[in-house]
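Hi R.,

Here's the chain you asked about this morning:
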Amino acid sequence: QVQLVESGGGSVQPGGSLRLSCAASGSIFRRYAMNWYRQAPGNQRELVAGISSAGTTDYGDSVKGRFTISRDNAKNTVYLQMNKLQPEDTAVYYCNANWVTSYWGKGTLVTVSS
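And the predicted structure, written out as tokens:
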């Protein structure tokens, strides 16, 4: 079983930056596509960014040009660098690993406000 633990969330002002990390354990990390999702109160969970096992990246329209996903297979870790944060980015951010089966972290809260 793959276990995922997110970290790096917190409170920032608009225009600020945060770097989220997701540490994976228990399986073959390199095989998995890794994704970041987020969910704000009253909203559906949405895909923020994804990175394939080959390193191909995809981003949600609302974060393109501001967020960058990356992975370090040697450390079994995926990152989400978030720049130019805006209040609408406020949400719980979840790490997801997907190959034959899917795993989810518990989430980390990001709050963007003045």
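The longest strand covers residues 18-25.

Let me know if you need anything else.
M.
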